[in-house]
Specification:
The protein is mainly α. It is about 65% helix and about 0% strand. It has one domain. The chain has eleven helices and no strands. Helix 3 packs antiparallel against helix 4, helix 4 packs antiparallel against helix 10 and helix 7 packs antiparallel against helix 10.
């Protein structure tokens, strides 16, 4: 990445894990060290209690609150078998989308900004671990924690609130590509956004409001079409709206598509916008990433 040496990042975490990596070269070495780095990043992630609560468990807590508080509201739609969509079923896809945003944009954005500010990244830059392996570690962390978080949300929804989950393979295939594309875009956007805060202490103040506003205007906490037209247009330029819409197409009945803009799930549009934001995030991360602070 711009400003970074082509072979620079830490073997510190790799050595600390106690795992020996074969002294291979090229792509095999990058991948082997990256796998070790993923394990290190995941362990570090779950050792930080505040991070676990505000990025990993927060959507689960919100799902429980919304499902309980709005249990008497609705119904939010009718399924093919005639059963009503309750609050838990309606808010589930939005909470999954919010979890993806929190894991990638907020989690990585704040974490990398802090590591840059306290000198961790600068120290890693002088060690022999390739930068690509370090990057794989961060992306792998988001993938692992995102999978665990989504699994927990689905389990709570199904076991605690009796939300019927999809049974068809095509529905889960749609959920898979929408979720993966949204997660990939969220992760690279988090890396790019980590460059914005001037210090680690200001990272939370800069990044958290961005993710919070996006959740409110993207159809996570309330029906998207209830927003003013101008706000819908603004939100439609950002990926969270499309991620939530794509997931709603999986977990809500087909009749619920009438409440979307244009009266359809528009999955081609979902794929296009999520892909565009992944490319934008990857380019931004590539062009703006630095090991040190702005004033360093």
């Amino acid at each position: 990445m711009s400003g970074a040496r082509p072979v620079a990042v830490s073997t510190g975490p790799a050595r600390a894990s106690g795992t020996r990596v074969p002294a291979t070269s090229g792509l095999r070495r990058v991948l082997a060290l990256g796998a070790v780095q993923v394990r290190h990043e995941v362990r570090t992630y779950f050792r930080a209690g505040d991070t676990v609560f505000f990025t990993f468990l927060f959507p689960v807590v919100l799902l429980a609150i919304f499902a309980t508080a709005f249990s008497a509201s609705g119904p939010y739609g009718v399924r093919a078998d005639g059963s009503a969509v309750d609050a838990a079923g309606y808010f589930l896809p939005g909470m999954i989308a919010a979890g993806v945003l929190l894991s990638g944009v907020q989690g990585l954005g704040v974490e990398i900004a802090v590591e840059r500010s306290d000198g961790t990244l600068k120290r890693l830059a002088g060690t022999p671990l390739p930068v690509a392996s370090w990057m794989l570690g961060k992306l792998g962390q988001v993938l692992v924690t995102g999978l665990l978080q989504t699994g927990l949300l689905l389990a709570v929804a199904a076991l605690v609130f009796r939300v019927p989950l999809p049974t068809g393979a095509s529905a889960w295939a749609t959920a898979g590509w929408v979720w993966l594309l949204g997660l990939a875009g969220s992760a690279v956007l988090g890396i790019a956004l980590s460059r914005v805060p001037r210090s680690g202490r200001s990272a939370t103040a800069v990044i958290v409001p961005v993710t919070l506003v996006l959740q409110f205007v993207s159809g996570v906490y309330l029906p998207f079409t209830q927003l003013p037209d101008w706000l819908q247009q603004v939100a439609s330029a950002f990926p969270l709206k499309w991620l939530a819409q794509g997931l709603r197409s999986v977990f809500l009945p087909e009749t619920s598509a009438a409440a979307e803009v244009g009266g359809s799930w528009d999955l081609p549009g979902v794929g296009l916008w999520l892909a565009v934001w992944f490319v934008v995030g990857a380019l931004a991360a590539r062009l703006t990433f630095r090991w040190g602070r702005r004033d360093a």
